[in-house]
Design brief:
about 190 residues; mainly alpha; Rna Polymerase Sigma Factor, Chain: A; disordered C terminus; globular; 2 domains; Arc Repressor Mutant, subunit A; RNA polymerase sigma-70 factor (ECF subfamily)
């Protein structure tokens, strides 16, 4: 993956600058990577591998609509796989709700492969967000969790982009301190 990181990152940077060929190549390579990733995840959960293609398309669409939120100074693949994880979780939620009216046995079988780690991570994130001021929570949710641009988050809050960036930075720093304190207490 490290070899691919540099190439993918470069293609994304070029795509952000308007290079259509680099963007097309990037999407083709991402399709292959994501298809393998989704098939693996769905297989591990005992889910229908045929759903992988639907989730891949959702991820590619999210990459397309949110490509302006990618910061070229950061690694590309964590950004990509964060989107992929969220889209997979969304798919699992939708498919669980779509089958909610089915027989009890089907509902139990469906929950057998559910990714409890993702749910627990979401709960941990909520607890962690609760440790910082509300105004920082909102901007971090908008930018880091919902994929909005800093400009969009700032407009929603009625503040400047610089102020939004400061809120994100301070909020993440406070969350890091909270994690450090929690880890230290757990080690004792």
């Amino acid at each position: 993956m490290k070899r691919q990181e540099g190439a993918l990152r470069l293609m994304m940077e070029q795509a952000q600058l308007g290079d259509a060929t680099a963007y097309r190549t990037l999407l083709e390579q991402l399709s292959s990577l994501l298809r393998a990733y989704m098939r693996s995840k769905l297989t591990q959960m005992g889910r229908n591998v045929a759903d992988a293609e639907d989730v891949v398309q959702e991820v590619l669409l999210a990459v397309h609509t949110r490509r302006d939120t990618y910061d070229p100074s950061e690694p590309f693949t964590p950004w990509l796989y964060a989107i992929a994880r969220y889209k997979l979780i969304d798919h699992l939620r939708r498919s669980k709700m779509a089958h909610a009216e089915g027989p009890l046995d089907a509902a139990e079988a469906m929950s057998d492969g559910f990714d409890h780690t993702a749910v627990e991570s979401g709960i941990d994130m909520e607890k962690l967000l609760a440790t910082i001021p509300q105004h920082s929570q909102r901007v971090i949710r908008d930018v880091k969790l919902d994929g909005r641009s800093v400009a969009e988050a700032a407009a929603r809050e009625g503040i400047t982009e610089a102020a939004a960036k400061v809120r994100i930075h301070r909020g993440l720093k406070a969350m890091t301190v909270a994690i450090g304190g929690r880890l230290w207490r757990e080690d004792r």
